[in-house]
């Protein structure tokens, strides 16, 4: 039966639903068996058209699976089928047709690498936390911090799809080690299972200062270069010289204080009434404790086995090294050409290409380390074009994406590893004149009035 729903009517329904191309689907029976993992829950109660077409190509069998859950149309919005949706997105369709590699590898190589890396991380934890190998800690804490974050990102994107039980196991490991990040991916505890998360809005409007929540909610971006629509706070000349020490020491110490406060709040929430959600609050507390114990960014386990001052000094230095080495990663993750005014309406894929960039590494060793961190930043463009693609396939898809951009006259941005430092430093220097407004010169570049 062809039924029309209003948004108000849908919000009153007791079942999980989503909207794709103006069609309404009841997806409650499909959530647990979705091969892409738990992120499908972020489509509940939202128009998931952009994300569905980004994850499923025109020849995907997801079209036939989705048809089983169709219940009607959304009133006041044009309802079209998926074939018509692809005809209206010729550029995105072109990229899918140029893609000659499958989204996942033919062998479970991603799963094998994740298991091997988690085993190596366990050995590293024993050497650094229990035996006190502080030099090894300083050398590799940044690497493991980035790997764990990328691992959670990969598993939530459905990267490990060969076996659902293995996928759930990897999800459990990475979500415990990066428990605080779950709110970013899944929403706050009271909103889990409904609505788009911050991460999904980042994928729909990447690096858009007005709509991407990363620009307003993520920490550690105070000194990262901004588009002219994301206002800088002018600074004095003497202030422009300490942006690096502030980023390396002050901000990490503030993060430690914030985590300690979050831990105390979690303890308090377990002790206070009402008791209805007590198990969920206890689960949150245990997850937070596990992260604080073993995550390289906090290392509480080392305080239990080493002299407190040694453990604290090692942690502070390790966080400083991590912030220093990972600064270019933040630069690329939040890439925005300073002088781009993207006010015109364009196809979804064009916005992805304009505001994403790949990080270029200076040598093969750096590339290998990035691969072991699941290519989190050297293939940002490919990840945003095909979010469901496994990280082991990025290097095969990159030449095709680059060639397609060249043929269509679309941007394909790359940023050098050390270029991130230079851009941050240059913009900090440009804004060291307090009280002077920005103006647009005849060249189209935004400069300080003299």
Automatic annotation (TrEMBL):
Transmembrane segments: none
Domain Cytochrome b5 heme-binding: 17-75
Keywords, alphabetical: Heme, Iron, Metal-binding
Protein origin, superkingdom: Eukaryota
GO biological process, one term: unsaturated fatty acid biosynthetic process
Record-linked InterPro entries: Cyt_B5-like_heme/steroid-bd, Cyt_B5-like_heme/steroid_sf, Cyt_B5_heme-BS, FA_desaturase_dom, Fatty_acid_desaturase
Gene3D superfamilies xref list: Cytochrome b5-like heme/steroid binding domain (3.10.120.10)
GO molecular function ontology, one term from the record: oxidoreductase activity, acting on paired donors, with oxidation of a pair of donors resulting in the reduction of molecular oxygen to two molecules of water
Cellular component, GO annotation: membrane
SMART domains: Cyt-b5 (SM01117)
Alphabetical list of PANTHER family matching this protein: DELTA(5) FATTY ACID DESATURASE C-RELATED, FATTY ACID DESATURASE 2
Family recorded in the similarity comment: Belongs to the cytochrome b5 family.
Protein name as annotated: Cytochrome b5 heme-binding domain-containing protein
Organism: Effrenium voratum
């Amino acid at each position: 039966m062809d039924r029309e729903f209003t948004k108000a009517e849908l919000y009153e329904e007791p079942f999980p639903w989503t909207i794709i191309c103006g069609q309404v689907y009841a997806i409650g029976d499909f959530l647990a068996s979705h091969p892409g993992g738990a992120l499908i829950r972020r489509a509940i109660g939202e128009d998931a058209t952009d994300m569905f077409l980004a994850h499923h190509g025109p020849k995907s069998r997801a079209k036939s699976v989705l048809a089983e859950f169709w219940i009607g149309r959304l009133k006041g919005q044009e309802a079209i089928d998926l074939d018509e949706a692809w005809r209206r997105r010729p550029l995105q369709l072109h990229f899918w047709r140029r893609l000659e590699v499958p989204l996942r590898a033919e062998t479970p190589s991603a799963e094998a690498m994740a298991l091997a890396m988690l085993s190596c991380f366990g050995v590293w934890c024993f050497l650094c936390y229990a035996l006190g190998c502080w030099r090894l800690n300083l050398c590799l804490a940044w690497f493991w911090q980035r790997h764990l974050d990328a691992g959670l990102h990969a598993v939530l994107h459905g990267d490990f799809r060969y076996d659902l039980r293995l996928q759930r196991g990897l999800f459990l490991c990475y979500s415990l080690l990066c428990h605080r990040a779950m709110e970013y991916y899944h929403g706050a505890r009271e909103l889990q299972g409904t609505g788009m998360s911050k991460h999904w809005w980042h994928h729909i409007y990447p690096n858009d200062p007005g709509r991407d929540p990363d620009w307003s909610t993520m920490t550690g971006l105070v000194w990262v270069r901004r588009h002219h629509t994301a206002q800088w706070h002018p600074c004095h000349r003497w202030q422009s010289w300490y942006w690096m020490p502030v980023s390396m020491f002050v901000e990490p110490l503030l993060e430690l204080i914030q985590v300690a406060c979050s831990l105390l709040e979690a303890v308090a929430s377990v002790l206070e009434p009402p008791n209805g959600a007590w198990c969920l609050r206890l689960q949150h507390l245990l997850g937070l404790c596990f992260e604080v114990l073993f995550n390289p960014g906090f290392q509480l386990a080392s305080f239990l086995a080493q002299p407190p001052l040694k453990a604290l000094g090692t942690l502070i230095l390790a966080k400083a090294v991590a912030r220093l080495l990972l600064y270019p990663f933040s630069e690329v993750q939040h890439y925005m050409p300073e002088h781009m005014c993207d006010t015109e309406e364009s196809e979804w894929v064009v916005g992805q290409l304009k505001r994403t960039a790949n990080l270029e590494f200076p040598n093969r060793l750096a590339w290998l380390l990035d691969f072991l961190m699941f290519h989190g930043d050297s293939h940002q463009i490919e990840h945003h074009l095909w979010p469901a693609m496994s990280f082991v396939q990025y290097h095969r898809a990159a030449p095709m994406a680059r060639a397609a951009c060249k043929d269509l006259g679309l941007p394909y941005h790359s940023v050098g590893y050390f270029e991130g430092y230079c851009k941050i430093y240059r913009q900090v220097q440009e804004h060291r004149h307090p009280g002077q407004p920005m103006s647009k010169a005849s060249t189209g570049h935004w400069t300080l009035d003299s």
